[in-house]
Amino acid sequence: MQTVIIPNKYNERLVGLLHEAGSKPIVVLCHGFRSSKDDSTIKAITTALTREGISAFHFDFSGNGESDGSFQYGNYWKEVEDLRSVVEYLSGAQRKIIAIVGHSKGGNAVLLYASKYHDVDTVVNVCGRFDLCQGIVGRLGKDFMEKIKNDIFIDVKDRNGKFEYRVTEESLMDRLSTDMHVASPMIDKNCRVLTIHGTKDEIVPVEDALEFDKLIPNHKLHTIEGANHVYSSHGSELASTVVDFIKAGYLPENQQSQEVPSCPRTRRLIRSRI
């Protein structure tokens, strides 16, 4: 495992971990809201990928974990640009990004990325939220719009009254103006997209996954019965589902050289020798 530091377009340092598994192809993984590259869900998928000989890279978005920048409640499109910086850096290092994977808010990041940039062929959205106007009241209260108009910000505290983070009007409007209904159909039809969602997700309702399934052109939906938002009892099924989908979309390097175009008879001969 190697620590890699990548500058984003704002010259903030993005800190990531590179797990080499002997393959030039690589998968980039994105964490969720107020999380980090050390998130247990991300680490479980990373372990499953490397066990199958697929290299992986996971990193902290700006304002999270060890990366530079200040935490913001919204930042959806900024996180897309952070991911863009990572993709460009790895591509410049002659790595082939075969998939981008995101959990929770990271699922939104990878889908928004695919709607804007069309250079990754496989995307995995693990319980990203479809309707970003939902899920706010639980954190900010029913009268959040009135509060933020009057006070310009809302300080979110935990159950013990300890300060957690500040939501500014700008960051709230960033979230409210990010429209997955518009972005989803803009993903290229040649881009394979998998959405995975637990039926017992207590943060993002499983119905959100059904909305993605209606709008994304080349989409597969996989629900995991009984799984919660962090797959605490279903990590193995989550990881194997992600890995199987990614492996189905590309040929390992040691198989690519065996591909022979044009002649069916030649292909039959090669298959008989393998």
Account of the 3D structure:
With 274 residues, the chain is α/β, with parallel strands linked by helices. The protein contains eleven helices and ten strands. The strands form two sheets. It has an eight-stranded mixed beta sheet with strand order 1-2-4-3-5-6-9-10, sandwiched between helices. A two-stranded antiparallel sheet has the order 7-8. Strand 7 and strand 8 (163-168) form a beta hairpin. Helix 1 packs across helix 9 (235-248) and helix 2 packs across helix 3. It starts with a strand and ends with a helix.
Give descriptors for this structure.
two-stranded antiparallel ribbon, 8-stranded mixed β-sheet, alpha/beta, single chain, 274 residues, disordered C terminus, 37% helix
Which percent bin holds the helix content?
25-40%
The number of distinct β-strands equals: 10
As a percent range, the share of strand residues is 15-25%
* Radius of gyration, whole Å: 20 Å
The poorly predicted ranges are 253-274
**Which strands sit side by side, in order, in the main sheet?**
1-2-4-3-5-6-9-10
* C-alpha end-to-end distance: 34 Å
- The string of secondary-structure elements, in order, is EEEHEHEHEHHEEHHEHEHHH
| Major beta-sheet overview | 8 strands, mixed
Structural class: alpha/beta
pLDDT averaged residue by residue: 90
Number of helices: 11
Q: Given the C-alpha coordinates, what overall shape results?
A: globular
